[in-house]
Amino acid sequence: MRLATVRYAQQPRLVLVDGNELWLPAPHSGWPESMLDLIAAGPERWRVLATELSKIKRDAVRLPRDGTEWLAPIPRPNKNVMCLGWNYAEHVAESASASGRKHEPPKDPIVFTKNVTSVSGPYADVPAQASVTQQLDWEVELGVVIGVGGRGIARERALEHVFGYTVINDVSARDLQFRHKQYFLGKSLDGSCPMGPVIVTREEVLDPQALDLKCWVNGELKQLSNTHHMIFDVATIIHVLSRGMALEPGDIIATGTPSGVGFARTPPEFLKAGDLVECEIQGIGRLRNRVV
Ligand code: MG
Hints:
Elements: E1 2-8, E2 11-18, E3 21-24, H1 35-41, H2 43-51, H3 53-58, E4 61-63, E5 69-71, E6 81-85, H4 89-99, E7 110-114, E8 119-120, E9 136-137, E10 140-146, E11 162-169, E12 172-173, H5 174-179, E13 193-201, E14 212-217, E15 220-226, H6 234-241, E16 252-254, E17 276-281, E18 285-290
Parallel strand pairs: 6-16, 8-13
Antiparallel strand pairs: 1-2, 1-5, 1-13, 2-3, 3-4, 6-7, 9-12, 10-11, 10-16, 11-13, 14-15, 14-17, 17-18
Bound molecules: magnesium ion.
Magnesium ion binds at residues 83, 139, 141, 170, 254, 256-257.
């Protein structure tokens, strides 16, 4: 299934995405009200809904793709978004070169979080916040949404815990990120976590480690890689995160960005008001966010 959250009659509502069509199922169809409700319902319910889609669509309201306000698939996550730092070797190398220091690829995942309040829609504006940061940067990343919680999840079974995949732009205020030592503040500005446009459920993504990622700024390609190049793959990340900390349904993991970010360019490039950032992952979709 391809699933999104849109605003309908002032409320966030879970919709089914089919090609260029959005379907809002009728309340009596048993369709959950929100993405988190659907995720919480569990794998058996997902399987049943997936087999009933044509029946569900019969009574659904069809919404225009363009005239509808798209929200993040999970507009208000229950927890901070968990993020991997330096999970692509070429990004480690460009960061080292930009800082003039030697960096080795990490032996264990580097994990930080973005505040839940940073989450925003796939086409939402990103506030430039010029009074706070002069170094707003882009990072296209594969987002993983946990469907089945667990602790001590074995690497071999880890992907069975995934509900689906999405696209995340881990917008980063580099000056804040480095000045405050810990990443949290520089990664958590309001509107700095555009997400979506859809969650593609796990069974439709044959291999999460074989997806092209791209990021453009004002139409110019800045990042181009493939999730094959992750240092720690999705299964390893889930395994490591869950060793002593329970993962729960609806948790979101941003799996790190490849090379091509702004601060590591020569000369460095940063986002300014008016810029258009687009982040795309093969088979999932493209975020389009204007800096304002
Ligand atoms: Mg990142």
